[in-house]
Amino acid sequence: MASLQEFMVENQKRDIFAIAQYIESHIALNWQTLIHKNIDKLVGVFNKAGDMAYGMYLGWLFLPIHKQLKQVQLRPEPRFPGDFNISREWGNQEQTDQQRWMWSTIESTAGKSLGTIVTITFHDHTQFRIPQKPQIIALTETSKEAVVEALSQRSADFKNSLEFQIEYAEYLRS
Q1: How many domains does the chain have?
Q2: How distant, in Å, are the alpha carbons of 20, 27, 83, 106, 147 from that of 1?
Q3: Cα–Cα dist 106/90, whole Å
Q4: Which of 120, 109, 112 has the alpha carbon at shortest distance from 82?
Q5: C or N: which end of the chain has fewer Cβ atoms within 10 Å?
Q6: Structural domain that includes position 76
Q7: What is the pLDDT of residue 12?
Q8: Mean pLDDT of the chain
């Protein structure tokens, strides 16, 4: 796979949509291989700490992307896949078909925002399982409010779900 810098030169674009396309290509090439290569470790972490295994997996999946962004003087804020506390999750009653939406704003090292990359991770709460490739959405919006509004227009499930920190606070009160 070409570097992000080569990809941008070849496509003559340096916008959020080109970055999303590059990330999607990286995910398509690596998401299953990474699971197969590390399945024992991921299952072990899942059995001890649940969803933290998905965070570990996503950290590995996005590490090469962080390096590529740094080479073209860009950075995600926060680091990919995004801020867990403001993420939203929903799924089926059995907890076997969940999706979590998280996002990061892409900024130049000079502080200019290019847009937002949303990562959708499909997962299972009963066992370590990622049933389908993580998806990427590119948005030109960058503020939390604008991103939430844009995603709420795309998905009624997103709109009707609570941020993790709010959902968790309600859980603790009950």
Answers
A1: 1
A2: 15, 11, 28, 21, 30
A3: 25
A4: 120
A5: C
A6: 4-173
A7: 86
A8: 96
